[in-house]
Amino acid sequence: MSDLEAFRKEVRAWLEENCPKEMRDAGAGGEDSICWGGKRWKFASEAQKTWLGRMAEKGWTVPAWPKEYGGGGLSKEEVKILKAEMRAIKARSPLESFGIWMLGPALLKYGTHEQKAHFLPPIARGEIRWCQGYSEPNAGSDLASLQCKCEDKGDHWLLNGQKVWTSYADESDWIFVLVRTDPKATKHTGISFILVDMDQKGVSTKPIKLISGKSPFCETFFDDATAPKEHAPGVSAIVGELNKGWDVAKYLLTHEREMIGGGGSASLFAARSPGELAAQKSGLDAGGRLDDSMLRAKIAQADVDGWAFMLTLERIKDEAKAGQGSGANSSMLKYYGTELNKRRYELMMDAGGSDELEWEGERTKDGKLARGWLRTKANSIEGGTSEVQLNIIAKRILELPGA
Amino acid sequence: MPLILTEEQEMLRDSARGFLDEKAPVAALRKLRDTNDPDGFSRDLWKEMAEMGWAGIIVDEEYGGSGFGFVGAGVLAEEMGRTLTASPYLSTSILAATALKKLGSDAQRQEGLPKIAAGDLLYALAVDEGAKHGPAKTAMAAEKHGNGFKLSGDKTFVADGHVADKIIVAARTAGAPGEMKGVTLFLVDAKAKGVETERTQMVDSRNAARIKFDGVEATGDDILGEVDGGYGALEGVLNAGRAGLAAEMSGAAQAAFKMTVDYLKERKQFGTEIGTFQALQHRAAHLYSEIELAKSVVLKALQELDDNYGIAGPVCSLAKAKVGEVAKLASQEAVQMHGGIGMTDEYDIGFYMKRIRVAQEMFGDPAFHADRIAQMRGY
Fold this sequence. Notes:
The complex is a heterodimer.
Chain A: H1 3-18, H2 46-58, H3 76-88, H4 98-110, H5 113-124, E1 130-133, E2 149-152, E3 156-167, E4 174-180, E5 191-197, E6 203-208, E7 217-228, E8 230-232, E9 235-236, E10 238-239, H6 245-266, H7 274-282, H8 293-321, H9 329-352, H10 368-376, H11 386-397
Parallel strand pairs in A: 1-4
Antiparallel strand pairs in A: 2-3, 3-7, 4-5, 5-10, 6-7, 8-9
Helix pairs in contact in A: 1-3, 4-5, 4-6, 6-9, 7-9, 8-9, 9-10, 9-11
Chain B: H1 7-23, H2 26-34, H3 43-51, H4 69-83, H5 89-103, H6 106-118, E1 123-126, E2 141-145, E3 148-158, E4 166-172, E5 183-189, E6 195-199, E7 209-218, E8 223-224, H7 230-266, E9 268-269, E10 272-273, H8 278-307, H9 313-338, H10 349-361, H11 366-376
Parallel strand pairs in B: 1-4
Antiparallel strand pairs in B: 2-3, 3-7, 4-5, 5-8, 6-7, 9-10
Helix pairs in contact in B: 1-4, 4-7, 4-8, 5-6, 5-7, 7-8, 7-9, 7-10, 8-9, 9-10, 9-11
């Protein structure tokens, strides 16, 4: 038996013994079944708590991170096996968070050993919940024009300014923030990436109600908020070099694009398909075709594009593995994947007709599809708008003048 | 199988690109058109292609071919699409070679495949009878006559029909038009009595013909595959053709796109390169994305033909549907972004638009194949 096969056997047996029965319904519960962790987290069930605890102990909440920082220290192949075995029993993800998705990768790439050792293990165990402070009221697509002030006060930093679109800031414990540490420098060079404890008077948050009726985002205000120069001996509050935070930000933006482009598409065929919904709502003719031929043509076109997009994700992954291809393709995937997702939801709403327009009530589970449809409108805005992605393609790939 | 080319396939692509740029640029097609060349392609060039192993690209080595499989065949088709190379490649080396390889008896294979690989024998596939593709619509009659059959009916849009030595033709031995059952494939000599071929001058200056069959005699030995059961077999051959055309269109779209992006960097108006205008940048970036999708579906379809020939239909339909749309968009954007010069015959871009228009129609347009995908998905 090869090492990988032995590993698979071991994982399978461990999961079988340790994954609570209630946690084997991945995909069924939607956003409500996610475990975010953090100081204020209230576990939805004892099983959720047990599951997180057991997985964290193995380091499998972040299987690819090094063991010394709370991870599982697994190779790419081993991570693949773990994920496949979890899928096989429909195991829920034990923990999701911006710490795992965003700050972790940033620290692993730009952090010092002390920063990693201090901040990563609590993320892996789900003890600290992080949020991301990037956009500002006057710095959206033009993120580098951000103005949130951060002054050097000797033993600490002093922050004044406002962030917006901070996801779940009202439920988070810490925030990683892009701030301006050198107001005289040119736009991209005076920015730093700083880690701030939100449990202080100078930091306040206010949820923003969205068109979907939900409030996943907040405004976050810094009024004489502080961060010590060192959160612990040798643990600097600044990640990467002072005034070079834009490098970290760019790295994370690319990372985020890939996640949104890939994530929006991975769920593409898992979600209800417009064709299925249309068949249910308006019926098929004797030849097995949708009665509504105009809608059918549109859905078929979207299915063609969706399938072609999935294959493109596969091809670009295979190219990357073979050391080919362009990194800038993450912009292409983000652009196309999010536009496609919006299209599919529009078609789903077309197919659902008036039934799916019920905003409240048991029949639509409080407008689940309609709220999901509205949520997709943000896909092509967050993480860099579609237009910004097209700019990046024009500049980095097509090398058009002045782009 | 990873969705990338192998080293061997990449080498094939690189050498094809060099050869075609030198020997068969768009200027060669222009010359064939302007001189009203009777063959519609260069027999010398075809001979050279055969010597390089291209004519027998999917023919197994035991029959004198180069045994590259469909991915290799598609790599060549894509390169020929870039330069709009006119040759009997699609009809002989993809369609007929697939038909003989997959359906032929030992004798038929022995007889045909080595000559295909050597570039000595040209074939055509005659399927369509009306303006829109639909193999099940086959109405051409194959009536029992003694020990054999008599074929009567009209075929249209037959690529290389007027230069072919042999014609593979779909006819009805049973059933009614619209039914899958009852279709049979025959291998007919182009010079047989009762075959009347009219070369049709097409938009793309490439070879096509209408062929009348008037009581053309065929024996049992001329049947390719099974009597009455030719529909599925024909679909397999058509799928190879669809993937080949998708590859060709992908190449044509990429070439037209490259010309366009180059033009955006050169052409100045309002005192600056027009490529600085965001209105054009975004259209170009969108088209880039679409072309990336086209590349993926082409490669997947070709790989599927090599690995799972019998069930490659859906992904070949995907390729024909998607690339048909993308290539059309690429040619339209190319003309628009070139402006006035894109409308001139002197400039090459129009040749791309014309070839893409014909190729996306052949063996099913995007709507035909999107319909198949909808049916497959149960709506």
